[in-house]
Amino acid sequence: MEASDPAFPVRHTALSSVVKGHKTDIVISSYEDHFLIGAMGTILQARKEESVSVDSTFSVTVVFGKRDEPMLVACARQLIEHISNSGSSKALVLSLGLRDHSLGMLKGIVSAVVEKLVEVT
């Protein structure tokens, strides 16, 4: 939709999409040490854990909001894995306020965000 305003100190982009019949607006901001993705809703923090092993480990924590929604945790995990696999070491703060928490809805959100993420990296 719109790319970063050069006068604003944080690189950001916004997307507006219809996912499974629901209009969804998401803002993606890239700070020095983390990405902030979403709109007002349940807030999750995800990061890659540093370890000596070859396999990557990721942690996802619900900071505020619905703690009994495993699909939101799965969504955050998919996004932090994508961020990590793209070469970034930034953490993720994800805020999602959705009416529909179905697998199809969250897959749509992840694919839309992944597509727009390149605009702020």
Please, could you describe this protein's structure?
The protein has 121 residues and is an alpha+beta fold. It is 26% helix and 37% strand. It is built from two helices and six strands, in the order βββββαβα. β1 and β2 form a beta hairpin. The mean pLDDT is 88.
Short description:
This protein has helices spanning 70-85, 103-117, and strands spanning 11-19, 22-30, 34-38, 42-49, 57-64, 91-96.
Task: Give me some keywords for this one.
121 residues, alpha+beta, 6-stranded mixed β-sheet, 2 helices, 6 strands, 26% helix, 37% strand
Q: Any idea what the shape is?
A: globular
Total of helices: 2
What percent of the residues sit in helical stretches (DSSP H or I)? 25-40%
Lateral arrangement of strands in the main beta sheet: 1-2-3-6-4-5
Class derived from helix and strand content: alpha+beta
SS strand fraction: 35-45%
Given as residue ranges, the uncertain stretches (5+ residues, pLDDT < 50) are none
How many beta-strand runs?
A: 6
Instruction: State the end-to-end CA separation.
Output: 16 Å
The value of Rg in angstroms is: 14 Å
Biggest sheet layout? 6 strands, mixed
- Averaged pLDDT, please? 88
From N to C, what is the helix and strand string?
A: EEEEEHEH
SSE blueprint:
Blueprint: E1 11-19, E2 22-30, E3 34-38, E4 42-49, E5 57-64, H1 70-85, E6 91-96, H2 103-117
Parallel strand pairs: 3-6
Antiparallel strand pairs: 1-2, 2-3, 4-5, 4-6
Helix pairs in contact: 1-2
